[in-house]
Design goal:
The protein has 10 helices and 12 strands. By secondary structure, it is an alpha+beta fold. Helix 1 runs antiparallel to helix 2, helix 1 packs antiparallel against helix 4 and helix 7 runs parallel beside helix 8. The protein is elongated and about 160 Å long. Its EC number is 2.7.13.3.
Length: 460
Amino acid sequence: MNSLSGRFLILTTVFVMLAEVLIFVPSIARFREDFLLNRLERAQIASLALLADDMLAEELEAELLANAGVYNVVLRRDEVRQLMLSSPIPDQITKTYDLRDASAWILIRDATSRLFTPENEVIRVIGAPVKDAGLLIEVTMDSDPLRMAMTDYGLRILGLSFVISIITASFLFLAVRVVLVRPIKSVVGYMQRYASAPEDARGIISPNSKVTELREAEEALQMLQTDLTQALKQRERLAQLGGAVAKVSHDLRNILTSAQLFTDRIEASNDPLVARMAPKLVNSITRAVSLCESTLAFGRAEEPAPTLTKLRLRDIAEDVVSSERLALADACVEIVNDVPEDLVVRADPEQIFRVIMNLVRNARQALSTSRKPGRISVYASEQESDWCIEISDTGPGLPPKAQENLFTPFQGGVRKGGSGLGLAISQELVRGHGGELFLKDTGPEGTTFEIRLPRGEMTF
């Protein structure tokens, strides 16, 4: 019964039974009222014999009362209360029920009370005579026949309700299987076939359901499968291309490394032209080697998980600033370390060094390209939930095209000849810390990148 149709069968049966129970309560009250009215009518008919003949034999009177199922009959006619028929009452009258002005709530209350009272009682019942043959009629009777009749009626109603609920649930069960379960199983079958071979376009579902909701689900699944198949094909092509690029980069790096050794000797040449051209050649080869190494490092995707430890961020920033100052070719560019002395963060020292180094180097290269005086600063602060590190410069800002693919590998390069891997790798390292790296601001006044590292529950 864990299937959808099985559970639907059980729920339908339960709800139909619940509805029948709600119907049963007023129904049993109605049955009780009809039973008592029938006794009153039979008692009235029995009293008519006395009206026809003032003197009745005791045996006939007893037979009339037995046929009516009562002990005595009182009829009020013309404001006169008359005891029409009577016999000895075995016990004291315990309850009186007036059916003339009884509301539905009173009838339901009295019927429920009688159904759950097993003891026999002598009760008085008052009602209006049929055919307006008087002001009222009153009888006394035992409660056992009433309760037995109500119990028998109730059992028959419950049995009938159970049969109706089973039949109704069975029809609904079959309807659900045809209308819902089979189409859903068909969709699931498509999903399983597609999952086993997602590159096979034949596994893509063809919407054919006539149910609006199911057809919408099939169309959404078809769109998802189509997009995923195309993405898998593109990914496979990129993987093949990446493998080829990695092989080329590996061999090219070896060739360039050998060429780098030869340029070291060329720099020592006394030829003025060679001496003037050698540094440019060295720089070009160095950039090419760096590009090959970055491509290979990104292709391996083997960045280890960060080893978090507490460290003084100013020391890391100072190492970056010192290294970049040595690479400065323009004395007009200033690099400053504004990180507070006492700021301690939780991070991987090597990885956070690489992130800050990438951002500072990008800023230095941007300022060097603009050939204008500028300033690069590394600043950090401690917030309530994280540490904030900002690397800002006074350079020309990032062009709109570079901002669109800023963190996309091989597309986010800003300077000419750049690979666009630096920011992509940096973002990956920051995410490994549970933080985020984003472009805070850029424009003619400069560019600011911000790193946010979560503090978590650990305090220092």
